[in-house]
Amino acid sequence: MALPLLAGAAQAQVATQGSDAFNLPEDISFIVERSNPNERRATARVNGSIITGTDVDHRVALFVAAQESEISPEQMPALRLQVLRNLIDETLKVQEAANLDMAVTQADVDQSYERYAVQARGMSVEQMNEYLYSIGSSPRTIKRQIQGELAWDRLLQRNVRPFVNVSEGEVTELWERLEASRGTTEYRVGEIYLAATPANRAQVQANANQIIEQLREGGSFIAYARQFSEATSAIQGGDLGWLRLEQLQQPTLEAAVAQMTPGQLVGPLEIPGGYSILLLIDQRQIGMPDPRDAVLSLKQISYTFGPGTTPEQAETQAAAFVEAVEGMNGCGDADARASAVGASTVNNDEIAVRALPEALQTVLLQLNVGETTPPFGDLQEGIRVLMLCGRDDPTDTSGPSVDQIMAQLEDERINRRAQRYLRDLRRDAVIDYN
Questions:
Q1: Helices first, then strands: H and E counts in the chain
Q2: 155 within 8 A of 92, measured Cβ to Cβ
Q3: What CA–CA distance (Å, rounded) separates 226 from 358?
Q4: Which parts of the sequence belong to the PpiC domain (predicted)?
Q5: CB-based contact 325:276 (threshold 8 Å)
Q6: For position 372, what pLDDT does the model report?
Q7: What is the model's pLDDT at position 13?
Q8: Can you tell me the distance from the alpha carbon of 80 to that of 60, in angstroms, rounded to the nearest whole number?
């Protein structure tokens, strides 16, 4: 993954006048050639705090473990440099919080780590520790990331959020527009934002193209957003939440999202200030019930082929199973008829349509009570159907509240100020690379 974002981020720290402020010549000849940055050792001292090669190794291992696709040896050096950049930013945040008497204590970090292990990963602290060591990482790397996030949250709460104002008039105007648009579509969008300047736009675009390629090969959008996105939504894995097109406040993004379908990935899209990679997580109609929020009562009817069953025997048994299913008169006699042909049944009375695979969602929403899906599976593992035994349809939704709209507008303005805040911390830092 060619990610010279390090150079891009450094160039983003110059004054807003752009490169013209430096009166740079078009033809630059370096007096001393600089070594390839991809060959530099990934260690640094940030205002006296050391980032070691082991710190980078453990964070890279954590990132790689979250991916479905492998990171090639050619991409690894650039990934390590990007990880180093993130570690530098985390260090600056922790230092700033400490300098302002808002230091994150070890108790705060340990408590958050335990909550992450139990709630997000379903593990005890000991199990989480063992897992991290097994992938070549360590508890320390997660705790370091937690410390950076907690420190940044405290800094924003004290130095940014109090100075962000959203008027009641702005909120009321937007709420009235939303009410007037009941029945139109609302989108849940994920974003990876990469800042760029006129001097480094081509470089950042190439980085974004590499990220897109990795995501399409199975990379985790959440992991890439947390690692590479320069928006404050990176902490939520890039999730911007539910919004209408005009709330994106960028014509390019609005036009792209309007054409997307859930699960689709697009980008990089050039916008003022950089590039965006978008993932449409979901969509729904404002103020209208979403059929996928219906709660179903389902009966799964399964037939498993015994060991040694030949393909010919499996086809015969499958045909008998399908014939038995077609003869069932609803869920009342499904158990007896299934047992008669050696099939088994399992009931689930509280499963949301949205929780099912997309292919099944479409089929189940078209079924009447007592009908079944087409058989699915294979002749090796067995086949099954789902029978609809009942459905509780969703009720109308009122859409976002005034408080939710105000919170979103505030978050957008906080995000812009936060980027400037971090840019200032980088500019004033003393960083020595080894």
A1: 14, 11
A2: no
A3: 26
A4: 184-282
A5: no
A6: 86
A7: 35
A8: 7
Name residues of the chain where pLDDT drops below 50: 1-19, 32-42
Task: Name beta bridge partners: 298.
Answer: 348, 388
Span between the terminal Cα atoms of the chain, in Å: 23
What residue type is 312 in one-letter code?
A: E
d(CA 156, CA 231): 13
Bridge partners (DSSP) listed for residue 195:
274
Give me the percent of the chain exceeding a pLDDT of 70.
Answer: 85
Which pLDDT does position 150 carry in this prediction?
Answer: 93
Tokens of 99: 């300098």
**Domains of the chain (ranges, CATH numbers):** 40-159 (1.10.4030.10), 180-288+407-424 (3.10.50.40), 291-392 (3.10.50.40)
**Residue 399: its pLDDT value, please?**
60
Going by C-alpha positions, the residue among 433, 423, 429 that lies closest to residue 8 is 423
Strand spans (E) along 196-291: 239-243, 265-271, 274-285
What is the rounded CA–CA span in Å between residue 331 and residue 333? Answer: 6
